[in-house]
Amino acid sequence: MSEVVARLDGITKSFLGVPVLRGVDLELRAGEVHALMGENGAGKSTLLKVLAGVHRPDSGRILLGGNEVSFATPRDAQAAGIAIIHQELNLLPHRTVAENVFLGREPVRRGQVDRRAMVAETRRLLDWLGEDGIDPEAGVVRLPVAQRQVVEIVKALSADARVLAMDEPTAALADHEVELLYDLVARLRDRGMAILYVSHRMREVFDLSQRITVLKDGAFVTCSPTEELTSDQLVRHMVGRPLDALYPERPTEPGEVRISLRDAGNDRVRDLTFDVRAGEIVGLAGLQGSGRSAIARAIWGVEPFTAGVLERDGEPVRIPNPRTAVRKGIGYVTEDRKGEGLALRQSVRDNALLVRRAALRGQAARRASDLAALLKSVNVVAQGPHQEVRYLSGGNQQKVVLGKWLAVRPNVLIVDEPTRGIDVGAKQAVYQLLRDLAADGMAILMISSELPELIGMSDRILVMHEGAIAGALPAGASEEAVMGLATGHGIGEVA
Amino acid sequence: MSVVQEKVSVVRRAAPQGRRFVLTPTVTVYLALVALLVVGSVLVGLKGGVLLDEGGILNILTRSTVLGLVAVGQTMAIVTGSLDLSVAYLIGLCSLVAAETMAGDTSMIAPAVVLVLVVAASVGLVNGLVITVLKANAFIATLGVALILRGYLEHNYTGPAGSVPRAFQHLGYDRIGPIPAATLLMLLIAAGVWWYLRRTRTGYHMYAVGGDIEVARLSGVRTSRTIVTAHVLCSLMAGLAGIFLASRLGSGAPYVGMDAGYDLESIAAVVLGGTVLAGGRGGVVGTIGGVLILSTLDTVFDDLAVDPFFKNVVRGVVLIIAVALYARSKGNGRTS
Ligand SMILES: Nc1ncnc2c1ncn2[C@@H]1O[C@H](COP(=O)(O)OP(=O)(O)OP(=O)(O)O)[C@@H](O)[C@H]1O
Ligand SMILES: [Mg+2]
């Protein structure tokens, strides 16, 4: 068995008296990917932050190569060879790629930062990753999310780390980018790096890891070699009970047309013609940039349609801005929760009621009596409704975004990557919730990069390719069929 | 081999996407300065005067010298995501320390300068520590320090005190052609600060801390040390301004900084120069542009004998327009 590079021993940590980690043990070995699993709020990110020197443990020991260490700051952890890719992206948008990669460790030559060396080294690492399309001197603000993730990885690599901890690195990536990341993680592992990998995607964890540790409510549950676990067992460890079928049954008959597009388009999408009926979940598939989110943004009035007709309940309407969309009963759960979905410094309560207060009037706008029920319906785990959203675990933030829209009871709901960063148990709850909402007469348009989820949930799937609809598939279509259309080939022909 | 070459060519193609001419705030501020000089010259000309004669240029540059020193220091504080409201009283204090230590004695010039710098640096250190250790908001922390300085000055001084030797007044009055020597000195220092912000590690870290202190911290930047450094340097610049004013006035004056409103004026110049008040973006070059605009405005108003009320209205309008323009021009659109 390979050498133990780092060991966490009985780590405990409380925030304001609330225990978040209760005696967690973890061993990271050279050349091994160790997956860390657990429900939202189980304490995974907190454990990583202890390892990263962000939080000091209340008790317990950190051992590196057999010696006990104690980190007062992230800088100490970095110096000890620990690199972390945090759950939220950690880059300065207005600095260049190279400046971000070397932040805090800028090479100095004759009293000046050696820009040339920085750029050269960044370029070398980007090349090595096969990501030579990224200009080391470009501002990060100009890069799409996936490329920012690459920059984060380069940043971790450039630190010459022996231990790399990644907190849901694929949450923001599209399928083909996930493949690249797999490849990369495997290569790093084979070079002897010890990797700690947090993810909610089962498939990923089984593909990549050699060992899995499960946390529940901050406590260590089990650690075992990946090959000795089945995914059912893993789920049972995480959730504490076996799960029923992940995807709920599809109902029978959809109702009347809620929203209808006729040859609609703008400069990102074109020739869109489709209906979404009450009681129906329509899935939108496609590669990153194929125009899925652009449709959502157009319907919701962020970048409105400039051509064609948009009908709401059979009436042609114009939706020039999001406010009008909300008034017309359309809700939109965005994919970028930190940027667009949440006011991070406000409480769970304020966030959950934000849309209701903004969009409704009078008594209805002030209503808060159903808050508890609302938060429960989306399974938010928080210390209470007054906790600031930024202290919530990533998955729970996502649930608050969902709750915020349900608070105004829209009858058309667009959900963009609704389960990103959500644990299996909560995923099932979200699926059930969406199905129940549909059964109540809501029309739902769902965008997702996770094909199994899209196929499992949709009554119909529209596949986008380069801004237009490449084809429509019935419920239960195969992944090959979807990918075939999405990549511009015929149904089922994947290159 | 061929694979490597292919990669290199790909990189080449990806890298320089043509430096198009962009209307950055820095460019905008200098264009605005030129426009102001033209319009000002015409207006003053209509009244039968000349804006940019030797006296006019001298006037603009002299005004710019003190404000320039203070604003360049303020730029470091603001880039780091902080700000300093204590500079105005600090300038008064430093002018007094300089003049009283010299007390007309040429041999005391050097010790006086050193003493002023020590006093200024200490005040900056206090500002920085109150912000980082006591975790006070920068606005409140530096306002508090300003009030303390004010209390000290009011208790101990009623008017000018001390005197500088004649030799020291060269600093305030010597010229090279129409350009005051002190202005050149100020520009030299500004160039030094430009280099510091753009080329040294601490400078990089100031941008990082101002951009997102959490990201900076997680990346291993010593955030507290960076903030303290910014405040010490900012106060040192105010100290230099105090020395210069002592040289010009011949003595120390407790309220010379406050009467000219160098606290808010310096912040206005920085923001006018395109530095974002929240920190992380901007720089010294823009600040100097902002300083020149403010001094030119003042000189034009003096030449036109405009009433001071109207003068402030115009400055206010200019500031608001500038900030609104930057908010639009910057890449704050979506990127995806
Ligand atoms: N700085 C903080 N102050 C107070 N509470 C915190 C803080 N950071 C985390 N918590 C709480 O600690 C618990 C664990 O959070 P953590 O982020 O570690 O969960 P997680 O396992 O990473 O979940 P997810 O899968 O959703 O990312 C949560 O209940 C969260 O609210
Ligand atoms: Mg987490």
Q: Can you walk through the features of this model?
A:
Chain A starts with a strand and ends in a 9-residue tail after the last helix. Chain A has two domains: about 5-240, P-loop containing nucleotide triphosphate hydrolases (Rossmann fold), CATH 3.40.50.300; about 245-340 and about 410-485, P-loop containing nucleotide triphosphate hydrolases (Rossmann fold, 3-Layer(aba) Sandwich). Chain A is of the alpha/beta class. Chain A has helices at about 45-50, 75-80, 95-100, 115-130, 145-160, 175-190, 200-210, 230-240, 290-300, 320-325, 335-340, 350-360, 360-365, 370-375, 395-405, 425-440, 450-455, 480-485; strands spanning about 5-15, 20-30, 30-40, 60-65, 65-70, 80-85, 110, 110-115, 165, 195-200, 210-215, 220-225, 255-265, 270-275, 280-285, 305-310, 315, 330-335, 410-415, 445, 460-465, 470-475. In chain A, α4 crosses α5 and α12 runs parallel beside α15. Chain B has helices spanning about 1-15, 25-45, 55-80, 85-100, 110-130, 140-155, 170-175, 180-200, 200-210, 215-220, 225-250, 255-260, 260-270, 285-305, 310-330; strands at about 175, 180. A two-stranded antiparallel ribbon of chain B has the order 1-2. Chain B has one domain. Chain B has 15 helices and two strands. Chain B is globular, with a radius of gyration of 22 Å. Chains A and B meet through α2 and β8 of A and α1, α9 and α10 of B. The structure holds adenosine-5'-triphosphate (ATP) and magnesium ion (MG). Magnesium ion (MG) binds next to α1 of chain A.
What is the structure about, briefly put?
Chain A is α/β, with parallel strands linked by helices and 495 residues long. Chain A has 18 helices and 22 strands. In chain A, 34% of the residues lie in helices and 25% in strands.
What spatial order of strands do you see in the largest sheet of chain A?
A: 6-9-10-3-11-12
Provide the low-confidence segments of chain A as ranges.
Answer: none
Largest interface: A-B, 39 and 30 residues
Number of helices of chain A: 18
Distance between the termini of chain B: 35 Å
